[in-house]
Each structure stands twice: as structure tokens, then as C-alpha cells.
Design goal:
With 395 residues, the protein is an alpha/beta fold. It is 35% helix and 28% strand. It has a 7-stranded parallel sheet, with helices on both faces. It has a 7-stranded mixed sheet with strand order 10-11-12-7-15-16-18. Strands 8-9 form a two-stranded antiparallel sheet. The longest helix has 18 residues, at 335-352. The relative contact order is 0.17.
């Protein structure tokens, strides 16, 4: 490889560092710039990428992702910008990239914000810019499994997607360990979920529709509605698929505890008056629980489980795909970093190589399911697949 591609990874946190590492290994990279508002954190992450990839391709840059003009000035030489910042900052990173005339993707945003940006398709197409949103794990990889079902079956009627990042050794009472931003976690629990029900796009309450499912090797987990996992897929597939939904997986009991915080106002963003000043309950929750929910001593796992039902050669058929990935001791990357960062990097590589069209491209139409699965296997990610012809279409 000639090392011809330049990537800017905005956000040198957990997932951004994993994405940069993947680009160093597989992205034909001549230059990777890993940026962060904390310049020292960016430097340490770039050094780590170079050490693990046995290269000198990654450099660091201090950059304020909330400053559109600064982003536009910094990223002008990039083939692709990867927005790996907390989701509320994606819009400024993307606007900076657009102003610089550079292609950009993000790891997952509020779906309504994403839909608004996708409305700029014609403008971006005319300017030769590619924008792909929601390229991480959920949203992202889980929807590639649904797309793969549609590629393999003649007709798909029902898609059920499940995903969860879990500790390998859960500790009560929450039986959960945080592997990304606390703000992002709360966002998943409070915003609306979007699904297809009988060919209609519907918005659902989150932390609801609780059920249990049995996952191979892990046993019984609970599943409940959360936001953003389906991304824009329901709008794309509503005429093609009867039902399409996403739920988060946790160890049993987690959802009920989170409902307490939800129902009793701990996630409200309206500021309250206290003797020391005004503060929002959400800010207090994030300050306290952002650290309490982390467990640096434990190793994580990520399970992604998808079920697709439909028709193959005239017969009712069912497909299942299960990915269970674990913390990698060799690199130190968590399972969440691997499946989120690697999946994002895979899409960035497709953009850099001109295999995704110009314009604002919904994730589910940007990359084939088979391409994503093949790329993950190349990275050592195991994918268990089951196919059954003649299966019932009952849930």
C-alpha cells in the first residue's frame, strides 16, 4: 500500500483511539491526525496508536470540536473526518468539515438531527462531499446485520435487533459498567425509540417493552427500548419491512433501576435553585454516576444479536446473527471500543476509497451488510450465523 489517505479523527477518547488504530492497520493511511480539546490526551492516544500498529502514521492536534471555524481550518487536507466526540458535538464537527469541503461521518447522533443533515443531500452531492451518519455499533453495525438479512433473503418481513455492552463480572445493584460517555447513555434512555410497526414508522417510549431473551453462551438477558439504535433505517425500509425494531440488552434488573432515575426527575435538564446556585438534576447525575458506573478493574463484553424473518425461495425462513466480543488483552481495547471504533473506521475506509457515493447517505444504504461482516471477520471479530428454511414467522 502506498499510504495515500489522510484521516482526521476528532475526539481522542476510547472509541476515537480504536478507530485511529484500525485506520493505521487497514486504512492505507499516510497520515492520521488524532485531535482532542485536551492536547495531552490526544498526544498519548496518538503515541498508543503508533506503538500498537508499529508505525509512525498517527500524530496529535489540540482542537476544540465545538468551534466550527477551527474544525474547518484544521481538517482541510483530510480525505475523511471521523467525528468521535460526544453526540451533541457531531453537528459542529460536520459543519466544519462541510465548510472545508471534506467528507465526514459520525458515530451516532440524535436521529432527528441526523434526518435534518441528511436533507442536505443535493447540496453535498454537488460539492463532492460524502456524509454518512451513525456508523458505530448501535446505531451502525446492528443495522448492517439487518441489511445483510435483506441481501440473503428474497423478502424480509421482520427484523429484531439487540445489542448491549456488559461487564464480564457484573456487580450489583446496576450490573453494568459504563464504557462511553454518561451523557450518551442517558440520551439513549430518555429520547424516543423509532421503529417500524406494520409498515408504519412509530416513536416509542424508552426503558419500556421489557422482555427477556436467551443469548447463546450468555444465557438470559433483559431487553428494552432505547433510542437511536435503528437510526434512519425505519424511514428507509418502512415500505419493504413490516416490523423493524431495536432493544438494548442488559443483565436482568437493570431497566427497573434506571426507571427510578427517569421517573423521579434525576435526568431533568431544567436548573433548580439551591443555596449554592442553580444546577440541573441531569448535571448532578452525570457528575456522580459518570464515575460510579465505571469499573476499570473489570473487562467488558459486547453482544449483538439480530433476528431476521422472511421468505427464501418461496419458503418461510429465519436468520440469526450473533456477535460476542470481549476485551482484548493484547491491545488493551475494550469490546465496546473494538466494535464501535472498528465499525466506524470500516465506513471511513470505504469513503476514502470512493466506494460510497457523494452526498448525504443514510448508513443503511451506504455499505452492504456483506461488506461490513467480511471486514469485521478480517479484524478477528467472530460472527455466528444460523439459517433456517421453513421457520415460523411468530415472535
Amino acid at each position: 500500500m502506498d499510504g495515500s489517505k489522510t484521516y482526521f479523527v476528532v475526539g481522542a477518547g476510547m472509541q476515537g483511539t480504536a478507530a485511529a488504530y484500525d485506520l493505521a492497520r487497514f486504512g492505507n493511511a499516510g497520515r492520521i491526525v488524532l485531535t482532542d480539546i485536551d492536547g495531552e490526551a490526544a498526544r498519548k492516544s496518538a503515541d498508543r496508536v503508533n506503538r500498537l500498529s508499529e508505525s509512525n502514521v498517527c500524530e496529535s492536534l489540540r482542537l476544540d470540536a465545538s468551534d466550527v471555524a477551527a474544525v474547518a481550518k484544521a481538517v482541510g487536507t483530510a480525505d475523511v473526518v471521523l467525528s468521535c466526540v460526544p453526540y451533541k458535538l457531531h453537528a459542529t464537527v460536520e459543519e466544519g468539515a462541510f465548510q472545508a469541503g471534506v467528507s465526514v461521518l459520525d458515530m451516532g447522533n440524535d436521529t432527528d438531527v441526523t434526518l435534518k443533515t441528511l436533507g442536505r443531500d443535493q447540496e453535498l452531492r454537488e460539492r463532492g462531499i460524502t456524509f454518512v451518519p451513525d456508523t458505530g455499533l448501535a446505531p451502525g453495525l446492528v443495522n448492517s446485520l439487518a441489511v445483510w438479512f435483506m441481501e440473503e433473503l428474497d423478502e424480509v418481513t421482520d427484523v429484531r435487533l439487540f445489542c448491549g455492552g456488559l461487564p464480564q463480572n457484573p456487580k450489583p445493584p446496576f450490573n453494568y459498567a459504563l464504557r462511553f460517555s454518561i451523557e450518551g447513555l442517558v440520551g439513549e434512555y430518555v429520547d424516543e425509540a423509532i421503529a417500524i410497526r406494520d409498515h408504519e414508522v412509530v416513536r416509542l417510549e424508552t426503558l419500556a417493552e421489557l422482555e427477556t431473551i436467551e443469548v447463546p453462551t450468555l444465557g438470559v438477558l433483559e431487553a428494552f427500548t432505547t433510542s437511536s439504535g435503528t437510526s434512519t433505517a425505519p424511514f428507509t425500509f418502512r415500505d419493504r419491512v413490516r416490523n423493524y425494531e431495536y432493544k438494548t440488552l442488559r443483565y436482568p434488573g437493570h431497566c427497573a433501576l434506571m426507571r427510578i432515575f427517569h421517573d423521579f426527575g434525576f435526568w431533568d435538564e431544567e436548573k433548580l435553585e439551591f443555596p449554592g446556585g442553580r444546577v440541573a438534576p441531569f448535571e448532578v447525575f452525570c457528575r456522580l454516576m459518570g464515575e460510579k458506573l465505571r469499573d476499570p478493574e473489570d473487562r467488558d463484553l459486547v453482544v449483538t444479536h439480530a433476528i431476521g424473518r422472511g421468505v427464501k425461495e418461496g419458503a418461510p425462513s429465519q436468520m440469526m446473527a450473533t456477535i460476542i466480543d470481549y476485551h482484548d488483552d493484547a491491545t488493551g481495547f475494550t469490546a465496546m471500543e473494538r466494535l464501535t471504533g472498528f465499525s466506524t473506521a470500516i465506513v471511513a475506509i470505504e469513503i476514502a476509497n470512493g466506494r460510497i457515493r457523494k452526498g448525504a447517505v443514510p448508513y443503511e444504504t451506504a455499505i452492504s451488510g456483506g461488506t461490513m461482516l467480511d471486514a469485521l471477520r478480517k479484524r478477528g471479530i467472530d460472527i455466528q450465523v444460523e439459517k433456517e428454511v421453513g421457520a415460523s414467522d411468530s415472535r
